[in-house]
Design goal:
Elements (H helix, E strand, L loop, with lengths): L1 H16 L17 E3 L7 E3 L6 E4 L1 H9 L15 H11 L3 E4 L5 H11 L2 E4 L5 H14 L3 H21 L6 E6 L11 H8 L2 E3 L12 H7 L3 E4 L7 H6 L7 H5 L2 E3 L11 H12 L6
Parallel strand pairs: 3-4, 4-5, 6-7, 6-8, 8-9
Antiparallel strand pairs: 1-2
Helix pairs in contact: 3-4, 5-6, 6-11
Protein backbone atom coordinates (compact mmCIF):
# COMPACT_ATOMS: atom_id res chain seq x y z
CA UNK A 1 0.00 0.00 0.00
CA UNK A 2 2.86 2.40 0.93
CA UNK A 3 4.57 1.73 -2.43
CA UNK A 4 1.34 2.41 -4.28
CA UNK A 5 0.94 5.74 -2.48
CA UNK A 6 4.51 6.74 -3.36
CA UNK A 7 3.89 5.95 -7.03
CA UNK A 8 0.63 7.92 -7.03
CA UNK A 9 2.32 10.91 -5.39
CA UNK A 10 5.15 10.79 -7.89
CA UNK A 11 2.69 10.87 -10.77
CA UNK A 12 0.92 13.88 -9.23
CA UNK A 13 4.22 15.75 -8.91
CA UNK A 14 5.07 14.98 -12.52
CA UNK A 15 1.66 16.21 -13.63
CA UNK A 16 2.00 19.42 -11.64
CA UNK A 17 5.54 20.30 -12.80
CA UNK A 18 5.34 19.28 -16.45
CA UNK A 19 4.22 22.76 -17.54
CA UNK A 20 7.79 23.99 -17.12
CA UNK A 21 9.25 21.38 -19.44
CA UNK A 22 9.32 21.28 -23.21
CA UNK A 23 9.00 17.52 -23.57
CA UNK A 24 5.74 15.66 -23.93
CA UNK A 25 4.45 13.85 -20.82
CA UNK A 26 5.40 10.18 -20.67
CA UNK A 27 4.44 7.00 -18.93
CA UNK A 28 1.09 6.74 -17.22
CA UNK A 29 0.11 10.32 -18.17
CA UNK A 30 0.07 9.38 -21.85
CA UNK A 31 -1.29 5.89 -21.40
CA UNK A 32 -4.45 6.93 -19.52
CA UNK A 33 -6.75 5.96 -22.36
CA UNK A 34 -9.56 5.74 -23.25
CA UNK A 35 -10.10 9.51 -23.12
CA UNK A 36 -13.55 11.08 -23.32
CA UNK A 37 -13.98 14.75 -24.24
CA UNK A 38 -17.13 16.75 -24.90
CA UNK A 39 -17.10 19.17 -27.80
CA UNK A 40 -19.93 20.84 -29.68
CA UNK A 41 -21.50 17.64 -31.01
CA UNK A 42 -24.38 15.87 -29.33
CA UNK A 43 -22.32 12.80 -28.47
CA UNK A 44 -19.00 12.74 -26.59
CA UNK A 45 -15.73 11.89 -28.33
CA UNK A 46 -14.06 8.72 -27.08
CA UNK A 47 -10.42 8.13 -28.07
CA UNK A 48 -9.15 4.65 -27.19
CA UNK A 49 -5.43 5.27 -27.85
CA UNK A 50 -3.11 8.14 -28.74
CA UNK A 51 -4.11 8.97 -32.34
CA UNK A 52 -1.42 8.54 -34.99
CA UNK A 53 -3.38 10.03 -37.89
CA UNK A 54 -5.51 13.13 -37.25
CA UNK A 55 -7.63 14.79 -39.91
CA UNK A 56 -8.56 18.45 -39.30
CA UNK A 57 -11.63 19.89 -41.00
CA UNK A 58 -11.58 23.69 -40.87
CA UNK A 59 -9.06 26.44 -40.20
CA UNK A 60 -9.47 26.47 -36.42
CA UNK A 61 -8.72 22.76 -35.95
CA UNK A 62 -5.71 23.01 -38.29
CA UNK A 63 -4.29 25.91 -36.30
CA UNK A 64 -4.81 24.15 -32.98
CA UNK A 65 -3.17 20.91 -34.11
CA UNK A 66 -0.18 22.79 -35.52
CA UNK A 67 0.23 24.82 -32.32
CA UNK A 68 0.14 21.58 -30.30
CA UNK A 69 3.10 20.27 -32.32
CA UNK A 70 1.03 17.64 -34.09
CA UNK A 71 1.91 18.54 -37.66
CA UNK A 72 3.57 15.17 -38.31
CA UNK A 73 0.47 13.32 -37.21
CA UNK A 74 -1.89 15.59 -39.15
CA UNK A 75 -3.24 14.31 -42.46
CA UNK A 76 -4.59 17.14 -44.58
CA UNK A 77 -7.69 16.77 -46.72
CA UNK A 78 -9.45 19.29 -48.94
CA UNK A 79 -11.97 20.53 -46.40
CA UNK A 80 -13.62 22.80 -48.95
CA UNK A 81 -15.28 19.66 -50.23
CA UNK A 82 -18.76 18.85 -48.98
CA UNK A 83 -21.02 15.83 -48.83
CA UNK A 84 -19.83 12.45 -50.06
CA UNK A 85 -16.70 13.97 -51.63
CA UNK A 86 -15.52 15.18 -48.22
CA UNK A 87 -16.45 11.88 -46.59
CA UNK A 88 -14.48 9.96 -49.22
CA UNK A 89 -11.43 12.21 -48.76
CA UNK A 90 -11.52 11.61 -45.01
CA UNK A 91 -12.00 7.86 -45.49
CA UNK A 92 -8.94 7.66 -47.73
CA UNK A 93 -6.86 9.52 -45.11
CA UNK A 94 -7.50 6.63 -42.65
CA UNK A 95 -7.66 8.79 -39.51
CA UNK A 96 -7.76 7.70 -35.88
CA UNK A 97 -9.24 11.09 -34.93
CA UNK A 98 -11.19 13.73 -36.85
CA UNK A 99 -11.19 17.28 -35.46
CA UNK A 100 -13.81 19.46 -37.13
CA UNK A 101 -14.93 23.07 -36.89
CA UNK A 102 -18.42 23.77 -35.63
CA UNK A 103 -19.76 24.73 -39.06
CA UNK A 104 -18.99 21.32 -40.58
CA UNK A 105 -22.11 19.47 -41.72
CA UNK A 106 -23.05 16.98 -38.96
CA UNK A 107 -24.26 14.50 -41.57
CA UNK A 108 -20.85 14.54 -43.28
CA UNK A 109 -19.18 13.90 -39.93
CA UNK A 110 -21.57 11.09 -39.09
CA UNK A 111 -20.80 9.42 -42.40
CA UNK A 112 -17.06 9.94 -41.89
CA UNK A 113 -17.30 8.35 -38.44
CA UNK A 114 -19.06 5.31 -39.87
CA UNK A 115 -16.59 5.03 -42.76
CA UNK A 116 -13.45 5.26 -40.60
CA UNK A 117 -14.48 4.22 -37.07
CA UNK A 118 -12.45 7.24 -35.95
CA UNK A 119 -13.30 9.45 -33.01
CA UNK A 120 -14.88 12.74 -34.10
CA UNK A 121 -14.39 15.93 -32.09
CA UNK A 122 -16.38 19.03 -33.07
CA UNK A 123 -14.70 22.23 -31.93
CA UNK A 124 -16.98 24.61 -29.99
CA UNK A 125 -16.36 28.16 -31.18
CA UNK A 126 -19.08 30.54 -30.03
CA UNK A 127 -16.87 32.28 -27.49
CA UNK A 128 -13.30 32.76 -26.31
CA UNK A 129 -14.02 30.37 -23.44
CA UNK A 130 -15.16 27.76 -25.97
CA UNK A 131 -11.84 28.03 -27.81
CA UNK A 132 -9.86 27.64 -24.58
CA UNK A 133 -11.84 24.53 -23.68
CA UNK A 134 -11.43 23.11 -27.20
CA UNK A 135 -7.64 23.51 -27.07
CA UNK A 136 -7.61 21.60 -23.79
CA UNK A 137 -9.87 18.87 -25.15
CA UNK A 138 -7.84 18.37 -28.32
CA UNK A 139 -4.59 18.31 -26.37
CA UNK A 140 -5.98 15.69 -24.01
CA UNK A 141 -7.35 13.52 -26.82
CA UNK A 142 -4.11 13.71 -28.81
CA UNK A 143 -1.73 13.06 -25.87
CA UNK A 144 -0.49 16.66 -25.78
CA UNK A 145 -1.94 17.96 -22.48
CA UNK A 146 1.18 19.91 -21.50
CA UNK A 147 1.30 21.79 -24.79
CA UNK A 148 -2.43 22.45 -24.50
CA UNK A 149 -1.96 23.93 -21.02
CA UNK A 150 0.73 26.24 -22.37
CA UNK A 151 -1.53 27.43 -25.17
CA UNK A 152 -4.52 28.01 -22.91
CA UNK A 153 -2.33 29.80 -20.35
CA UNK A 154 -1.06 32.14 -23.09
CA UNK A 155 -4.62 32.89 -24.21
CA UNK A 156 -5.74 33.56 -20.65
CA UNK A 157 -2.73 35.81 -20.05
CA UNK A 158 -3.77 37.97 -23.03
CA UNK A 159 -7.31 37.96 -21.74
CA UNK A 160 -6.17 39.15 -18.33
CA UNK A 161 -3.99 41.85 -19.91
CA UNK A 162 -6.96 43.18 -21.86
CA UNK A 163 -9.23 43.07 -18.82
CA UNK A 164 -6.69 45.03 -16.78
CA UNK A 165 -6.21 47.63 -19.51
CA UNK A 166 -9.95 48.12 -19.91
CA UNK A 167 -10.82 48.23 -16.21
CA UNK A 168 -13.17 51.17 -15.85
CA UNK A 169 -13.37 51.81 -19.60
CA UNK A 170 -16.81 52.72 -20.87
CA UNK A 171 -18.62 50.45 -23.29
CA UNK A 172 -18.48 51.60 -26.91
CA UNK A 173 -21.14 50.86 -29.48
CA UNK A 174 -20.11 48.99 -32.61
CA UNK A 175 -21.48 47.97 -35.98
CA UNK A 176 -19.80 45.05 -37.75
CA UNK A 177 -20.17 45.02 -41.54
CA UNK A 178 -19.74 41.46 -42.80
CA UNK A 179 -20.33 42.53 -46.41
CA UNK A 180 -23.29 44.20 -48.06
CA UNK A 181 -24.20 45.77 -44.69
CA UNK A 182 -25.04 42.34 -43.26
CA UNK A 183 -23.80 41.90 -39.71
CA UNK A 184 -22.97 39.25 -37.10
CA UNK A 185 -24.73 37.42 -34.30
CA UNK A 186 -23.81 38.30 -30.75
CA UNK A 187 -23.52 34.57 -30.03
CA UNK A 188 -20.47 34.13 -32.21
CA UNK A 189 -16.74 34.24 -31.58
CA UNK A 190 -16.41 37.76 -32.95
CA UNK A 191 -19.48 38.87 -31.01
CA UNK A 192 -17.97 37.49 -27.81
CA UNK A 193 -14.61 39.15 -28.45
CA UNK A 194 -16.38 42.48 -28.94
CA UNK A 195 -18.12 42.00 -25.60
CA UNK A 196 -14.85 41.16 -23.83
CA UNK A 197 -13.29 44.24 -25.44
CA UNK A 198 -15.99 46.39 -23.79
CA UNK A 199 -17.98 46.83 -26.97
CA UNK A 200 -21.65 46.31 -27.79
CA UNK A 201 -23.10 45.55 -31.20
CA UNK A 202 -25.89 48.00 -32.02
CA UNK A 203 -27.48 45.34 -34.25
CA UNK A 204 -28.64 43.40 -31.20
CA UNK A 205 -28.36 39.74 -30.31
CA UNK A 206 -30.12 38.25 -33.33
CA UNK A 207 -30.24 40.59 -36.34
CA UNK A 208 -32.14 39.33 -39.35
CA UNK A 209 -30.26 37.90 -42.30
CA UNK A 210 -29.47 40.24 -45.15
CA UNK A 211 -28.49 43.92 -45.09
CA UNK A 212 -29.03 45.74 -41.83
CA UNK A 213 -31.52 48.62 -42.38
CA UNK A 214 -29.42 51.74 -42.92
CA UNK A 215 -32.12 54.03 -41.59
CA UNK A 216 -31.99 52.05 -38.35
CA UNK A 217 -28.19 52.18 -38.39
CA UNK A 218 -28.32 55.99 -38.65
CA UNK A 219 -30.65 56.09 -35.65
CA UNK A 220 -28.35 53.85 -33.60
CA UNK A 221 -25.26 55.80 -34.77
CA UNK A 222 -22.45 53.52 -33.47
CA UNK A 223 -19.21 54.85 -32.03
CA UNK A 224 -17.09 52.49 -34.15
CA UNK A 225 -17.65 50.92 -37.56
CA UNK A 226 -15.86 47.58 -38.08
CA UNK A 227 -15.62 45.62 -41.32
CA UNK A 228 -14.60 41.98 -41.65
CA UNK A 229 -11.59 41.25 -43.84
CA UNK A 230 -13.69 39.71 -46.61
CA UNK A 231 -16.42 42.38 -46.61
CA UNK A 232 -14.75 44.63 -49.17
CA UNK A 233 -15.88 47.65 -47.16
CA UNK A 234 -13.73 50.82 -47.06
CA UNK A 235 -14.02 54.13 -45.26
CA UNK A 236 -14.01 55.93 -48.63
CA UNK A 237 -17.10 53.96 -49.68
CA UNK A 238 -18.93 54.88 -46.48
CA UNK A 239 -18.03 58.55 -46.85
CA UNK A 240 -19.28 58.62 -50.44
CA UNK A 241 -22.58 56.91 -49.59
CA UNK A 242 -25.27 59.47 -48.65
CA UNK A 243 -26.89 56.89 -46.36
CA UNK A 244 -23.77 56.33 -44.24
CA UNK A 245 -21.60 59.43 -44.55
CA UNK A 246 -23.26 61.14 -41.57
CA UNK A 247 -22.60 58.29 -39.14
CA UNK A 248 -20.41 59.62 -36.34
CA UNK A 249 -17.99 56.71 -36.75
CA UNK A 250 -17.58 57.55 -40.43
CA UNK A 251 -17.23 61.31 -39.88
CA UNK A 252 -14.62 60.81 -37.13
CA UNK A 253 -12.78 58.03 -38.99
CA UNK A 254 -13.37 55.44 -36.29
CA UNK A 255 -13.36 52.68 -38.89
CA UNK A 256 -11.24 49.54 -39.03
CA UNK A 257 -10.96 46.44 -41.16
CA UNK A 258 -10.56 43.43 -38.90
CA UNK A 259 -7.75 40.93 -39.55
CA UNK A 260 -8.86 37.62 -41.11
CA UNK A 261 -7.81 35.66 -38.01
CA UNK A 262 -10.30 37.44 -35.75
CA UNK A 263 -13.06 34.98 -36.68
CA UNK A 264 -10.85 31.87 -36.47
CA UNK A 265 -11.34 29.65 -33.41
CA UNK A 266 -7.64 28.96 -33.01
CA UNK A 267 -4.74 29.56 -30.62
CA UNK A 268 -4.36 33.19 -31.81
CA UNK A 269 -7.70 34.14 -30.22
CA UNK A 270 -6.02 35.97 -27.33
CA UNK A 271 -4.08 38.10 -29.77
CA UNK A 272 -7.29 38.76 -31.72
CA UNK A 273 -8.97 39.98 -28.54
CA UNK A 274 -6.13 42.40 -27.83
CA UNK A 275 -6.15 43.72 -31.41
CA UNK A 276 -9.88 44.34 -31.19
CA UNK A 277 -9.59 46.00 -27.79
CA UNK A 278 -6.92 48.36 -29.16
CA UNK A 279 -9.26 49.37 -31.98
CA UNK A 280 -12.18 50.03 -29.64
CA UNK A 281 -10.16 51.64 -26.84
CA UNK A 282 -6.88 53.01 -28.27
CA UNK A 283 -6.27 55.29 -25.28
CA UNK A 284 -6.28 52.33 -22.87
CA UNK A 285 -3.12 50.88 -24.44
CA UNK A 286 -0.96 54.00 -24.72
Amino acid sequence: MRAALVVAATLLVLAGTACGERTEPTGALVESYPVTVHGASERPTVVNAAPRRIVPVGTGPRRVLEALGLKRRTVAVDDELVGLQLVDAIRRAKPDLIVASGDTDPLDLSRARSATRAGVYVEPSASLTDVVEAVGDIGLAAARPVEARRLTAAIEARRAKVAAALAGAREVTVFVDAGGFSTILTRSLLGDLIREAHGRSVAGASPEQGPFPLQRLRELDPDVYLATADSGRTLAQLRSNPRTKRLQAVRSGRFAVLPPDVTVAGPQVGESLEQLARVLHPDAFR
